[in-house]
């Protein structure tokens, strides 16, 4: 909310300067978003009157003006097209300092000039201006322009939280400042207008709970062509509200002053009774902003016998709008249930000052008073004769008694607040207070919708008591060395980040079709109230989310990506589901960043396998099975086993999904359950042999379908004497090898911890390995 500080100070008498005033508002919870001077700084500019004018002798576009500034008349050369005899102007004297220029005595084409007649632009009040500024004839010649136009003002903008609707008015802010600073508060004139005419409008409120209070009156013989005082228009403009017409300006003025939205109908355009009801399905209205909408059955409206004439709490309709020719108006002031109004404007892409206040809650005690205030201003400045107020009153919101315990107050704040200070604060805020043995019973006023529970009262006390009075203490803790607990999630994250991966955090929700087709979950868990249509299902795998991350990055010219995430997956039904914590990752693009020292190659299966193996020091088994996930390429996928238990999958994305996501290259993905990875088991230590190992190499021919991993497992399980390590170092298929066969070569390292092996011992161990391969895998030793 934006407003003039001078307007605010007309209600609350405080000696604080602008900075100090902003500080106390901030400390009390009213966030000052911006505060700046009204206009640029200038000096020695006064009100002048052009008493005579003649053409410049040597310039067609210049004129020589005699300007009266009170105690004397100055000769000033001016080139403005609107300069003429009889108008009052802003006159910068010799020595004046303007935002862009300093005024000096000068000669203009041979004619002396003792000052300058200024436009709004030259005074720094606007960016553009046509001609010099013309002032009101009521201003005194020679008076300081800043004082005359009330330019020594600050424009303040508050960024209020939704619960502080009581401060969406100048009076509300003034009331708050008076409470904070214990300053005096000037009352608003709620004069009851004398009844000058007998015509009265009948009002029917069909939706009593949606509109607990409705007031309206007819005002006849108004003149909507009158000019409002400068101070009214100025206060509106400084609150960022454009002047429209006297009647509309007055309703906006009362809105800003008191916080009560009002609406004026042209009475001559109304037909029959005023009815407050819900709209019919698809019922149309042409709004004041020239928008045509069709309402729903949940929208509250003001109607007459012709149909809807206003969208209640949001905006009026064109059919009953006030114009310059309007002579009789029906002025409305109402209280609508905030729940009924909330979100209605946004549903039609609208935003109004009225809806902003109604949906947060206005003071229902001010409904009639605001109508009297607006009526007084209209009659004073537009003329007119007020009729009797029609009021329909139903059940208003109750203001319940809240019990505040001093013991709880002091426990929460951590300090002892004196009982008399607590009572004083509540009185300053306008609360009704009664002492009890334990504390106080408090009834909040009608304008404080946000006060409902004991904690709300505690917040009010500390706001006014002062957050700065709560001492800050250095935290004290006794730190001891904690025992190590084996592998933790941080270790898994470090393992991948050290290999160039980035951690991502994605939503647990995914598109239903992706969950079924990519993750193969035929019975997904559906959300009752999804935040978006493409996030309607709980995911059973993280792959879909990571492919979305990949697509997002590719669209932003990121050609190489390594990401991982630790999160929960969900399987089952809404009532009976299982959460599984997994670590999932995706690798795409080149194996190494582009650089000079090595050739660029794309990642392959063995790269992603190496990343997975880096997650644990335990021995992982990778096996091809018949139950390949739908997301994986059937020929480049492996199930991952740890200590005989399946913990996940690693592999290449299926070509159809590469095509579905329009990926230039194929990514590799993995997903593992981390519970097994985090198991803490005692390490088994072995002595490191001081004796040199003996190496032997063998090459055997086996069927093409035989997995090397199964060969290695079989050898290790056989507990061959002296065997330290066996590893594959060569694979060959081609000339000299039968079809559907392959040659695999292994290095064999043998070692003893107590002695150096002799050839016979090493040869015996190799012989046992060869016989094992012949028996279990049909291998033949290759010459």
TrEMBL record:
Cofactor: Mg(2+)
Pfam family, one: tRNA_synthFbeta
Domain B5 per the UniProt entry, residue ranges: 397-472
Binding-site positions, Mg(2+): 450, 456, 459-460
Entry GO MF terms: ATP binding; magnesium ion binding; phenylalanine-tRNA ligase activity; tRNA binding
UniProt domain TRNA-binding: residue ranges: 39-146
A biological-process GO annotation: phenylalanyl-tRNA aminoacylation
Keywords annotated in UniProt: Aminoacyl-tRNA synthetase, ATP-binding, Cytoplasm, Ligase, Magnesium, Metal-binding, Nucleotide-binding, Protein biosynthesis, RNA-binding, tRNA-binding
Manner of cofactor binding, per the entry note: Binds 2 magnesium ions per tetramer.
Coiled coil regions, renumbered to chain: none
The keyword Hydrolase belongs to this UniProt entry's keyword annotation: no
Keyword field contains Transferase: no
Primary localization: cytoplasm
EC numbers for this chain: 6.1.1.20
GO CC annotations on file: phenylalanine-tRNA ligase complex
Protein name: Phenylalanine--tRNA ligase beta subunit
């Amino acid at each position: 909310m934006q407003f003039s500080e001078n307007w605010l100070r007309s209600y609350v008498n405080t000696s604080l300067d602008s900075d100090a005033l902003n500080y106390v508002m901030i400390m009390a919870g009213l966030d000052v978003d911006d505060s700046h001077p009204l206009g640029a700084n200038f000096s020695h500019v006064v009100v002048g009157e052009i008493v005579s004018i003649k053409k410049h002798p040597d310039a067609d576009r210049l004129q020589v003006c005699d300007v009266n500034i009170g105690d004397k008349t100055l000769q000033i050369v001016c080139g403005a097209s609107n300069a003429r005899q009889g108008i009052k102007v802003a006159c910068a004297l010799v020595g004046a300092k303007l935002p862009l220029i300093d005024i000096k005595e000068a000669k203009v084409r041979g004619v002396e000039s003792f000052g300058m007649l200024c436009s709004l632009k030259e005074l720094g009040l606007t960016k553009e201006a046509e001609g010099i500024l013309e002032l009101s004839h009521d201003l005194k010649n020679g008076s300081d322009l800043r004082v005359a136009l009330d330019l020594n003002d600050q424009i303040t903008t508050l960024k209020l939280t939704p619960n502080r609707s009581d401060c969406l008015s100048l009076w509300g802010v003034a009331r708050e400042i008076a409470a904070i600073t214990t300053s005096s508060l000037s009352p608003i004139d709620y004069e009851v207008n004398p009844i000058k005419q007998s015509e009265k409008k009948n009002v029917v409120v069909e939706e009593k709970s949606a509109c607990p209070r409705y007031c309206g009156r007819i005002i006849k013989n108004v003149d909507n062509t009158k000019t409002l005082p400068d101070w009214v228009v100025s206060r509106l403009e400084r609150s960022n509200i454009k002047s429209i017409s006297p009647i509309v300006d007055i309703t906006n003025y009362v809105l800003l002053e008191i916080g009560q939205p009002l609406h004026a109908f042209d009475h001559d355009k109304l037909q029959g009774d005023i009815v407050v009801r819900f709209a019919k399905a698809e019922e149309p209205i042409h709004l004041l902003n020239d928008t045509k909408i069709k309402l729903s059955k949940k929208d509250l409206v003001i109607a007459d016998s012709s149909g809807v004439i206003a969208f209640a709490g949001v905006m009026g309709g064109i059919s009953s709008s006030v114009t310059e020719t309007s002579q009789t108006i029906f002025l409305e002031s109402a209280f609508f249930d905030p729940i009924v109004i909330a979100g209605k404007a946004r549903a039609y892409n609208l935003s109004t000052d009225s809806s902003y206040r109604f949906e947060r809650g206005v003071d229902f005690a001010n409904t009639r008073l605001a109508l009297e205030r607006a009526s007084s201003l209209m009659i004073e400045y537009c003329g007119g004769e007020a009729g009797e107020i029609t009021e329909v009153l139903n059940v208003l919101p109750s203001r319940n008694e809240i019990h505040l315990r001093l013991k709880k107050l002091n426990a929460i704040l951590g300090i002892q607040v004196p009982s008399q200070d607590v009572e004083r604060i509540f009185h300053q805020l306008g609360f009704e207070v009664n002492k009890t043995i334990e504390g106080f019973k408090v009834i909040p006023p009608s304008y404080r919708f946000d006060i409902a529970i004991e904690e709300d009262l505690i917040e009010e006390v500390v706001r006014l008591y002062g957050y700065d009075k709560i001492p800050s203490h250095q935290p004290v803790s006794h730190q001891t060395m904690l025992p190590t607990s084996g592998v933790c999630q941080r270790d898994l994250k470090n393992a991948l980040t050290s290999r160039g991966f980035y951690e991502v955090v994605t939503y647990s929700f995914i598109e239903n079709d992706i969950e079924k087709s990519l993750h193969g979950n035929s019975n997904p868990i559906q959300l009752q109230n999804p935040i978006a249509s493409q996030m309607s299902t709980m995911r059973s795998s993280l792959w879909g989310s990571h492919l979305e991350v990949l697509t997002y990055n590719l669209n932003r010219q990121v050609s190489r990506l390594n990401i991982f995430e630790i999160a929960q997956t969900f399987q089952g039904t809404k009532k009976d589901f299982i959460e599984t914590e997994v670590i999932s990752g995706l690798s795409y693009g080149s194996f190494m960043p582009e650089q000079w020292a090595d050739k660029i190659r794309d990642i392959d299966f063995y790269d992603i396998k190496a990343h997975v193996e880096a997650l644990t020091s335990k021995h992982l088994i990778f096996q091809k099975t018949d139950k390949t996930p739908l997301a994986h390429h059937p020929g480049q996928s492996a199930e991952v086993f740890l200590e005989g238990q399946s913990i996940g999958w690693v592999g290449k994305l299926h070509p159809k999904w590469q095509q579905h996501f329009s990926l230039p290259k194929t990514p590799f993905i993995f997903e593992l359950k981390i519970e097994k990875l985090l198991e803490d088991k005692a390490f088994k230590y072995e002595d490191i042999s001081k004796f040199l190992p003996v190496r032997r190499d063998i090459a055997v021919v086996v069927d093409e379908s035989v997995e090397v991993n199964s060969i290695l497992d079989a050898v290790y399980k056989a507990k061959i004497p002296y065997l330290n390590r066996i590893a594959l170092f060569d694979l060959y298929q081609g000339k000299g090898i039968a079809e559907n066969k392959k040659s695999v070569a292994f290095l064999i390292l043998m070692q003893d911890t107590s002695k150096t092996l002799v050839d016979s011992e090493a040869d015996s161990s190799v012989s046992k390995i060869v016989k094992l391969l012949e028996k279990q895998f049909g291998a033949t030793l290759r010459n």
